[in-house]
Specification:
This protein is α+β, with helices and mostly antiparallel strands. The chain has helices at 13-26, 43-52, 80-85, 156-159, 243-250, and strands at 5-9, 36-41, 60-64, 88-92, 95-101, 106-111, 114-119, 125-131, 134-142, 144-148, 171-177, 187-191, 195-200, 208-212, 215-217, 220-227, 233-237. The protein is built from 5 helices and 17 strands. The model has no long low-confidence stretch (mean pLDDT 95).
């Protein structure tokens, strides 16, 4: 049986050129008809593709036509069907975020990498942190805080000196951003099942925004985050270059 491939590409010229070459050689179907979706671009476009296809079970194989390409495979035109058939599968769950804003509205979003709370004014944010209904920190004064999945632990979380998590770990990384009080507090590791709530203290004076994979909401007063087991993304990687291996490599650079 011929593998039905659905190609999608970012607007970058390299990605568009790759799309033209690959569809001319292998044909193209819509993502809803595809056996495999091939995403051409960088990590940002891979996240866009996963969000856009979260309601269908089709696996996604990325090829790097962007910059970093941590979630992508090496680009090559030849032997693509064989690469897809032999690819390793990695399954990940995203985070669900529910944010309340000062105007009384409720906003919901999905984050594959992380949810971040960031100060949106000149003064540091003040946040109260609760886990599974129990207050764990009455006041964190910082530039913000984030909750990252294992898949997202090498992104913003790692830049903020958070831990890299094994892809199969049933934990989430809670990482502070430039903590002032408690001084230099780096964060915590939490069970994947944890329900984390951040309440903004004095939001009029110290405004905070929430960001879920670049989907942003300003003037939040409370943000609830938890892993979403009902959504499962399947990523494909060339053998020996899977996400688990890449996470390990990042720690020995």
């Amino acid at each position: 049986m011929t593998l039905k491939i659905g190609f999608v590409a970012s607007d970058a010229p390299l990605a568009q050129e790759a799309w033209a070459d690959l569809t001319a050689r292998y044909g193209n179907v819509t993502v809803n008809q595809a056996d495999v979706i091939v995403a051409l671009g960088g990590d940002g476009f891979m996240l866009q593709t996963l969000h856009a296809t979260q309601d269908i079970p089709t696996p996604v194989y990325g090829m790097n036509r962007g910059t970093v390409g941590f979630l992508m495979n090496t680009y090559a035109v030849d032997n693509l069907p064989d690469r897809l058939v032999g690819a390793e599968r990695t399954r990940i769950n995203p985070l669900s975020m529910m944010a309340q804003t000062m105007d009384g509205q409720t906003h919901r979003a999905i984050a594959i990498n992380e949810v971040s709370l960031l100060r949106a004014g000149p003064q540091a944010a003040k946040l109260r942190i609760s886990v599974d209904g129990r207050e764990r920190m009455d006041e964190l004064v910082s530039d913000g805080v984030l909750l990252a999945t294992p898949a997202g632990s090498t992104a913003y979380n790692y830049s903020a000196h958070g831990p890299i998590l094994p892809i199969g770990a049933d934990v989430l990384a809670l990482t502070a951003l430039n903590a002032f009080r408690p001084r230099r507090w780096r964060g915590a590791l939490l069970p994947k099942t944890a329900r984390v709530v951040f309440d903004v203290i004095d939001p009029d004076k110290r405004p905070v925004m929430a960001d879920a994979d670049s989907q942003s909401f300003r003037n939040v007063v409370s943000v609830e985050i938890k892993s979403n087991p009902d959504i499962q993304h399947t990523l494909l990687f060339d053998p020996g270059h899977g996400l688990e291996e890449r996470l390990i490599q990042e720690q020995f650079v």
